[in-house]
Amino acid sequence: MGRLQSVSREWQDRRAAFVAPADGMTCGVPPAPEGDARIRVLLISDLLLGRAGLHYVLQEAPGIELVGEAGTCEEAVELAARERPDIILIDVDLRANAFQCLGRIVATAPESRVIALSDRTHAADHKVLIELGATGLVLKNERPEVLIKAIRKVHCGEVWLDRTNTARVLAGIAQRRHLHDAEAEKIATLTRREHDVIALVGEGLKNGAIAERLFVSEATVRNHLTSILSKLELTDRFELAVYAFRHGLVQYPNC
What we know:
By secondary structure, the chain is α/β, with parallel strands linked by helices. It contains eleven helices and five strands. Strands 2-1-3-4-5 form a five-stranded parallel β-sheet, with helices on both faces. α5 packs across α7 (166-188), α8 (192-202) crosses α11 and α9 (207-214) packs across α10 (218-232). The chain is elongated and about 55 Å long. The protein has helices spanning 2-18, 48-60, 73-83, 98-108, 123-131, 144-155, 166-188, 192-202, 207-214, 218-232, 237-246, and strands at residues 39-44, 64-70, 87-91, 113-118, 136-139. The protein folds into two domains: 2-168, Response regulator (Rossmann fold, 3-Layer(aba) Sandwich); 189-246, Arc Repressor Mutant, subunit A (Orthogonal Bundle), CATH 1.10.10.
């Protein structure tokens, strides 16, 4: 409790510098239009200091109500189911499996709109997040007013993307439709055991844990992974995890 109070005092001391207001603005963002209902936001991040900073940005923004905070995927799923927020703001650089967490949250609260926070700048990563159900993505180096604007735009039904990657993300999604048949042919070459390995990679398990779950040796797991990467023309297990979620090779747990 003492550490939380210390963090809270630190952010109160630094808040003026973190979100310096300008004329006619609160917390660095324009005031919400009069008469608008408050936007209910759920915040998900496993970094205490980062969550504390976002807490104050959201708390100070007019027209926004912070209805809950979660530090783990399990807490996030529970809060999303209970609160049914308008916007779910999730840090996708979580130490846990962010892709699986995002999928579980979307499945739990399909009426909520999800905005991903990330320091990843590659268009391919952004495309995966959109395909998994996010309707917005804000880079962590953006100003607070950009985040608040993104929340309001997504709440109104728009999609918010980093402008430098928008064209590449949309082009990639369109191109994927043409590649569907080719990818289906690759997937059809996988054995049942290779599907089992992919599912466990999707859960974020390392080779040793996969070997224990499948009652095989780590060497056998490595052989399976080598075969899988070759068949799917991928380079590493991160690409495999992204591919698995993108093509439905990993099933989200029941929530």
